[in-house]
């Protein structure tokens, strides 16, 4: 599959100043920016910066960033699912996972996450993909936000809806292990029925087991 990436950019005015949302960006472009130390939800910020540069260099990898001048204050990643997860079992070239989205705490009330998702979907080639994200409550910053599991779930769903992702059922054991966990999906307008049917087979692998 030819992974076409078309750059888009959006300026967002916030009480803390203008934020630029842009991408997908190249590894070189990404490396030229400072990476805010508050971006540490998944690993220490220097290592996370390196991980994003690596993802940006992958054929299918996409990184959209939010920045204030030369400092990255948020990002979203798109990459093939982890080979250890069920979502990779069909070897679907047109299935991408929204693997991580993070915004520093000072900017979380400015809808930066929604803007990152909207800019992601400005690229027409995203209509060729099935985009998924798996949401697990143990990854959520419940302590930092003061939200309950269910309120955080509502916030996550609204944010993902901004990018056209919607809730879909699955019998994946990890997602099914807690009712707050969920699978959210966006099926591009040019995705074939065959791909949708293959994705459905991946979503439900135990449908004939009683």
TrEMBL record:
A GO molecular-function descriptor: acetoin dehydrogenase (NAD+) activity
Gene3D superfamilies given in the database record: 3.40.630.30
GO biological process: acetoin catabolic process
Superkingdom to which the source organism belongs: Bacteria
Coiled-coil regions listed: none
InterPro entries found in the cross-reference section: AcuA (IPR024699), Acyl_CoA_acyltransferase (IPR016181), GNAT_dom (IPR000182)
Residue span(s) of domain N-acetyltransferase: 41-118
Pfam families: Acetyltransf_1
Record's protein name: Acetoin utilization protein AcuA
Organism: Fictibacillus solisalsi
């Amino acid at each position: 599959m030819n992974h076409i990436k078309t750059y888009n950019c959006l300026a967002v005015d916030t009480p803390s100043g203008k934020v630029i949302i842009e991408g997908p960006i190249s590894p070189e472009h990404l490396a030229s920016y400072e990476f805010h130390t508050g971006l540490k939800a998944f690993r220490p910020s220097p290592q996370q910066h390196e991980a994003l540069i690596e993802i940006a260099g992958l054929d299918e990898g996409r990184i959209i960033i939010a920045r204030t001048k030369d400092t990255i204050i948020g990002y979203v990643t798109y990459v093939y699912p982890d080979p250890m997860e069920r979502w990779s079992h069909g070897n679907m070239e047109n299935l991408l996972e929204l693997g991580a989205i993070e915004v520093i705490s000072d900017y979380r009330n400015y809808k930066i996450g929604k803007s990152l998702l909207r800019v992601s979907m400005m690229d027409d080639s995203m209509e060729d993909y099935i985009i998924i994200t798996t949401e697990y409550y143990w990854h959520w910053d419940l302590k930092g936000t003061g939200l309950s599991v269910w309120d955080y779930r509502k916030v996550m769903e609204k944010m993902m809806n901004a990018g056209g992702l919607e809730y879909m059922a699955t019998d994946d054991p990890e997602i099914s292990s807690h009712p707050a966990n969920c699978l959210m999906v966006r099926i591009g307008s040019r995705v074939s029925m065959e791909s949708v049917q293959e994705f459905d087979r991946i979503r439900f692998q135990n449908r004939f087991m009683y």
